[in-house]
Amino acid sequence: MKAAILKAFGQPLLLEDIPEPVPSAGEVLIRVLAAPVGWYAQEVFSGERPYPLVLPLAPGCGAIGVVEKTGPDTTRLQPGQLVFCDPMVRPRDDSTTPANSMLQGWIARGEGPQKLQTYFRNGPFAEKMLIPLENAVPLDHMDDIDPVKLTWLVALLVPYGGLLAANVQPGQTVIVNGATGYFGGAAVAVALAMGVERVVAPGRNKDRLDILVNHFGERVRPVLLSDNEASNRQRIAQAAEGPIDCMLDILGQTQDTGPTRRGILAVRPNGTAVLMGGVNADIEIPYWYVMHNNIVIRGQYMYPQHAPSLLAGLIRAGLLRLDVLSTRVFPLEEVNQAIQYAHDHGGAFQLTVLTP
């Protein structure tokens, strides 16, 4: 079978023929229909963003595919069945430690995750991929949906994990820090699908904020930030028009802790702030304020194992819209062009997809 192989950081991916895996117990072989190309893939493959990967491998992170072959202990999955390939591979002997998981074909931090990647090495930049049985999530009654658009599940699942961690409920108000970005735009879409009354979206790019409003309407409350912090806090409060139940921080890589701190202090008493972005610095939080207002501050790495099935249900129910997406499709042979295109077109609701 053909696969796009990353042999060394800083080199283009090479299209090669590699042996087709044979699934054993607890495994399933998937024929890949569509795989997203993350906007920062170029930074990973160049080594600029230092992801620990066991090279060589076919990279990628998550896919839509159909079951090709199953191991002998499979009881439900059938050949030809449409599935989501969940990239988050959890160690079966330590599934409760998120940091000991790996993203197949993408990132493996630490000794345990690298053991997983040594075995489940190749990701979806290939015609077929071997995955753990539990990572093949059935997409029943979704065969009529374009697999290319279904690859948005990979981005949607990240903020969905944060919103589930905050126990977000219909009718609540949520701030999304980083709402105009790739994962932030997905967070806005998921929060609205979960039934929140409004999403407060702070940002400094008016055009990108306008895109959110144009896609989703008045339930999105944009806040154009300035250099005046007191004014920013006031605008956020005005946009919320009431108590803010949750702040989801899903900013990209930054050392600026100001937006995160602002978001934490904006939530109501007994509210929740969820940290799952790329802030790389310590945050100064007023101890007494947090204690006296019962503020919950929690981290969330990725999402629970049941999240993909729930998210698929939101799509089937028509609550989570895929029509907001702009997609660009590349064949596997043009993988390097796809990586460059994703880098140049990496905003919210823009998908670059490989179709092996």
TrEMBL record:
Organism placement in taxonomy: Bacteria, Bacillati, Chloroflexota, Ktedonobacteria, Ktedonobacterales
Residue span, Alcohol dehydrogenase-like C-terminal domain: 184-305
Family statement: Belongs to the zinc-containing alcohol dehydrogenase family.
Alcohol dehydrogenase-like N-terminal domain segment(s): 25-139
GO molecular-function term, one example from the UniProt record: oxidoreductase activity
Cofactor: Zn(2+)
Keywords from the named record: Metal-binding, Oxidoreductase, Zinc
Protein known as: Alcohol dehydrogenase GroES domain protein
